[in-house]
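Protocol step 6 of 9: fold each sequence in the batch and record its structure tokens directly after the sequence line. For illustration, a two-sequence batch is reproduced in full.

Sequence one:
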Amino acid sequence: MLVVAVAALTTGAGWAQTEMPGPLVQQQPGGQATIGQGWRLLTLPKQKPPVTTYSAVLLDGRTALRIDARASYGNLAHALIGPAPATLRWAWRVDQPNTSTQLNTKPGDDSPAKVCLSFDLALENVPFFERELLRLARTRSPEPLPAATLCWIWGHAEATASVISNPYTKRVRYVVLRGQGDATGRWFEESRDVAADFRAAFGEETQTVPPVTAVLVSGDADNTGARSLAYVAGLVFSTGAGK
């Protein structure tokens, strides 16, 4: 369902689009941590599940985004416009994993933490059947839906480095980075080659990395009805387009 929630970002209506996102979390004078400017909470139209709680905290000397999902859904997002970054870096930890996660199934399509980019993929690159479904979905949405969203995700039993299509729509694809084999309550540093990961996920459609339209950080537990707790810190874009 992520593809629906990011739709509002593709036009930038009411959003300040930038080539680089502002800090995800920043420390204010006096030591208080706040969510950065330009980041907005997005939910589904007429959403029934509770909304995932996002807050800024100081943890282990880091300013971090706390992601508390309790049978809930919601995305923290920042609109962008411009070429894809060459590298995306961040640190994250999971203190309470979701052991019911099964990313290739609709009932298990939840994650304690994910970092995503939406891309302005040209419609002609989308396979015919999916293109027609996307066109139909766009007629029912007040905003154009992105044709490609790539998420780096904290799963559960999935194989590390596996690429999985979202069970609701192949327009969203996951690269699994962490899961049950990774210790809880411990920070892990990530550095991703955006172009390489995009081609691993969408390379059968295009080898050219499209411009980005949004970056999202989120956690959800609405499908499993479970609870998870995670933190993301130090989200940094490198300059330059993906090659």
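Sequence two, same batch, same settings:
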Amino acid sequence: MTARTAIVTGASRGIGRAIALRLARNGARVVLCARDRDALDRAVRDVEQAQGRAIAVSLDLRLPDAAPQIVAAALGAFGTIDILVNNAGATKRGEFEQLSDEDWMDGFALKFFGAVRLTRAVWPHLKQQAGSVVNIAGVGGRTPGPQFAIGGSVNAALLSFTKALADVGIRDGVQVNAINPGPVRTGRLERRLAEMGTDIEEAERNFVRDAGITRLGDPEDIANLVAFVVSPAGRLLQGALIDMDGGQTKTL
């Protein structure tokens, strides 16, 4: 990936940070985007310690003018844009009757509309570079749950967007795919496990058993798959919706 530039959103922690580090280790120049400037700066230092090149762009992707700012920063720093990883976006869990209009609008504003706007802004540059888009959605988009009404709906929309855009990508020479992570050891999952009332190790065992999966994922698992998808070895993938969930998704 030498001389290729990747934009990774939600890159200050968790899956996004792991993706940025993995792509940088493969030689990519990385633009890390998130709202938390301090966490972004720490992630950039980690990339640089791994002998990579990176810049941080701190902004809120829910705002319409965020996408052109990211594009301008990427082009100003590195001159091209070759890869876009839409990873930003956490949605509120909860009982349906307790979820407000604002909760629903916020869930779509960041993860869905943020991804749509940024992809649209980046698309002309991806066409020039025969680039790649990877949308990080989630297994809830295929198997909704009662506590995940917003997240499942947002992820389903993002998966549909991926399929539609993949056809545009065939015409324009841009690769478009999506990855559906299952339970991954991020701060958000760790907080859920801590609420189970047992020690973390037992909570993990119970979670794995109840979910019927092989194990919990690590952010690096998703990062390794992203690195493969956007590499020459993964180029045949187009419009793929890849479940990386330890077997959680049981449906066809």
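Proceed to step 7 once all outputs are recorded. Observation for sequence two: The two ends are 34 Å apart (CA to CA).
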